Input
Amino acid sequence: MTELLSNFIGGRWQAGSGAGTALHDPVLGDALVRVDATGLDLPAAFAFAREQGGAALRALSYRERGALLAAAVKVLQANREAYDAIATANSGTVRTDSAIDIDGGIYTLSTYAKLGESLGDRRFLLDGEPARLGKEPLFQSQHVQVPTRGVALFINAFNFPSWGLWEKAAPALLSGVPVIVKPATATAWLTQRMVQDVVNAGVLPAGALSVVCGSSAGLLDALLPDDVVSFTGSAETAALIRSHPAVAQRSVRVNIEADSLNSALLLDGEAPGSESFDLLVKEVTREMTQKSGQKCTAIRRILVPEALYGPAAEAIAARLARTRVGNPRNETVRMGALVNRAQLASVREGLAVLQAQTDTLHDGAGHALVDADPAVACCVGPTLLGTRTPDSADRVHDTEVFGPVATLLPYRDGAHALALVRRGQGSLVTSLYGSNPAALGPAALELAAGHGRVHVVSPDVGALHTGHGNVMPQSLHGGPGRAGGGEELGGARALNFYHRRAALQASTTVLAALAG
Ligand code: NAP
Output
């Protein structure tokens, strides 16, 4: 029998009372560990976090809370190799892909640790300048932001068990709000282990960080009006969360990060083989194959001028053909596995939906697996699809295949390109490629309303840009419409979600004393 991972709630480790759900190695098929949340007293756990964790965190300044994050960073760095081993076994990712999750999480945490230092010894944030409320200047209104007095519940997706935890926990803890994380079951091990290391190191106050592994049953029921919930996952689960009484009736603040049909657009006027053309080809292949395409920000639709459809198909397919797929323990392998059999089935199903409206320009089925048994391993080769009739191919604009699959689409002119991008109905990110700054800037602004992030790649930044799909803590993560309408990160902006804004109306002497 495999080990049953413990939950950390109410300030102590507690095992579920059920048999548990096994987590598997998606390449070898072995059962690794089990998770279970049966029988936990969730209302008591939430009360403990609110009362003990919240009070202890709020007693500290931003600088002091930043120092706690910095201490957590040291703990995580010291245990990094163990995380890499868990990621290989449970996520089936190659080292560089595991690093995006593990080091991305640690980097985000350290970025917020530094932000805490810069916010100094305050325990609340001033929001804007005082404003006169009438003719007399003595009585004014000053907006402030104070930490909410509830808990932050995180319900996370399977593809980023480390980054998904820390990109949310860093701004929450820095804001003074305790965290309860429920990782996706398939990859809960890494999240649980990281929480265990930080908890056991004693760097955070009791109740500041809790983890529940296994079923989500009862979590939303435990939420009270001061709490917030941040969800990452599918649109279907997001809809359930939005309609839960905690959100619909008790006004629990909710942030949703859902799926997205992100695009990459090569502007007109770039020849095949030009720097911009090559940058697009390189980025598209990287995005398709990194983490086997299991990134919410991955490029799903590639738009090029009609005349470049053939050359782009050829260049992308040639790069994809060189991708070695299989067991991440083999050093020649560049792309590991999908997370489990269910995702493998879902990718195959989604691919069939898209293939009904497209041509297959590079077939992932042609990739022989390296050191992996196709009957067991959840590995698929990368597939490039394409259609010369992008307007009528509806499924391409509404079906997210969460795997190494993207579709090439030709456009007639600039207006057609923008219209096709917008068919995604709101995305996390789009990337633009071109060499003419006078065209790139306006195109970026045209697409900004439909995207949380517009990533512009011109030849001068070709070697140093941070990547279409890489979420940097300095930039906003989230997107309107289909992407869920959420906002995360974006530097200090992330703290807004965990604070409550209030207008203090008072004498200027009172306000001045408060502002220090
Ligand atoms: P999912 O099935 O919606 O699961 C996400 C989380 O919700 C898991 O922790 C899951 O727990 C939990 N959950 C399931 N049913 C629930 C319920 N009734 N109430 C409360 N929680 C519930 O999503 P997924 O398939 O794991 O994730 C893949 C999707 O996430 C993709 O569509 C991807 O685009 C999206 N994603 C978006 C972002 C972003 O930042 N925008 C990032 C990553 C992924 P269990 O695992 O225990 O079922």
Summary: The two ends are 60 Å apart (CA to CA).
